[in-house]
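Fold this complex.
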Amino acid sequence: MAFGRLKEILLSDLNIDAESTDKLMENLYAEFPMLSHLKLRIAVNQKIISGNTKLESNDIVALMPPYSGG
Amino acid sequence: MLDLERYDRQLKLHGFGMEGQQKLASARVLIIGAGGLGCPVLQYLAAAGVGNIGIVDDDVIALSNLQRQVLYTTNDVGKLKAEVASSRLRSMNPDISIRVISEQMNTKNIIELLSDYELIVDCTDNFPTRYLIDDACRLMEKTLVFGAIYQYEGQVAVFNIPNDEGLKTSYRNLFPEPPRPSEVPDCNDAGVLGVLTSMIGTIQATEVIKLITGIGNSLSNKLLTINLLNYQTILLDIPAQITSSIAYPTSLADLQLTDYNLHCGMKSERSETICPSSLYEMANLPDTVIIDVREPGEYPKLGFPHLAIPLSNLTEKATQIQQQNIIVICQSGKRSFIGMKLLHEQLGKAYKISHLDGGINNLKE
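Structure:
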């Protein structure tokens, strides 16, 4: 799942095979180079993670950018 | 004396009652920003009977605001938002006291303004002010109700309330480093659906009322994100650690010396940009050094005393700089701007760091 501008880049929710969040982001950065320019947080099953995290099948990864509007 | 008839429908609520109403009446809430988010926050808090409301906004009403800032009318265009908002709220609920602060929130006034209130609501529309408010609230241990929007999506979170284990989070736990300017378009550039600001602002007001009266579970340590186009909603746990690779204020003294525009990669309000005509004059001031951040082999060579530290080595060599006044220069003014930012982060605020606008290209012999 992606939010904000990230959604505009990824276009839709994706199903991806990856063993860890680092591997997942590596794949995404390769496929969507624009993504690498943006600040974002990664959440696995609704918990924002701070380091590389192992992924199991059916884990839900969300990519969250900051919003500034008010 | 509380007007019981006015508040009758919420007094009847289980868990709210007279006790909740009295808590609202004695509460002190500061709303920063009286725009898209601020309007619904102000309306609902005033209507609910929050006893002491402060409104911070130095902006005037524009016609393009009216699509979402529903406290204002066409006749109000050109008037100060905080003034107009307070007069509407006073007629809506004369029982409450409202303080108008038609100033921009900045490092000079924030500590004094925040210390008067127990709960702060961030309804601003830009990152420098958001990081300023967040740092101040974290350092002053003030509860902060955060809201922000992007096109059809909105975020709400509550910061600085310790959980059962004593852990608390702030916006820096969520996004430790500000994004670069232009990375996240604001409403002016990206557009916004009017109802979105009202929905997100209403959730912020809900959190304020819940926190004051002690009902329900707040969004403390959580980030709520809603997408209006498909009602996709996600509630994320915010990590307890701040994992930042850049320096950020860890004391109020630090905060007051921080330039938040610069911190967010924007041009500084302080005169840190030097025009070519004043370069020589500035260079002759005592305790001053010019640093050329171009790579070796770039021309023209400089015909005046300077220190050559290529931008690529600037971070590691920053501590070698002896002087307090530092002028960074490069060919076009681009790398010197980045160099100035790097030095600001590396050396802190005791140094006066500026850069040459337009670079050496702009220097005339």
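The CA atoms of residues 79 and 97 of chain B lie 21 Å apart.
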